[in-house]
Amino acid sequence: MDPLTSALKVSASGLQAESTRLRIVSENIANARSTGDAPGTDPYRRKTISFAAEVDRASGASLVEVERLGTDDSDFNVEFDPGNPAADEKGMVKLPNVNILIEMADMREANRAYEANLQTIKQARDLISQTIDLLRASQ
Amino acid sequence: MEPIQLFELASRQAQWLSVRQNVVAGNIANANTPHYKARDVQPFESVLQNTGVQMAATHRAHFTESADAAQVTEVSALDDVAVQQSGNTVALEEELMKTGAIKRDYELNAGLVKSFHRMILMTVRK
Q: Is B42 in CB contact (< 8 Å) with chain A?
């Protein structure tokens, strides 16, 4: 396969991986206060994502793919809130183990990586169009 | 008449540049992959010097690495500072610098081919 075309493919895989990461981050933020529906039940557990390099057989280029969607096994935050429907008999409510600051940092990082991949796509496209320009009749 | 070497040389450099662009794209895509080691191609000079025999791909599952792609090597990180916590050695800034260099070289290459082509056409016309 033409290396420039496969560069586009590689960058597209990067875009896809980073956007999946962004989706996970937004799921975590959206569910930052999702408690269980009955007293004493577990709330939303923070999701994690990890990437792995995958060799594209056709071109030998290294694509990136989402390797695993996991969950964060750290302890839940516990808060005293007797009025909450999910509060146990002592009035304690388990809240998700989501830290908004961590999610924000993660979001920024995914954003930057997404931008870098977009930049590479633009560049590969420019190189291809320059090559095609060679065929145009010159004035 | 002397054979014109420029077109072959230019097309080989263009091929080398696109292989490099591919490798850089791979590095950027894997900027957040744990344990991924940044890669780069060997300099064009050394690629020019050793052009070897190449194996044929006779099956769809064969790795079809071109002579240029075989020159891809892992870059050793200069010191432990460049290695991230996750074992990743990609520096985004460096990769973006590389894409800039690739773009410049490719523009120069395409411009040269274009003007050379125009010169040849000039001798043919009229």
A: no
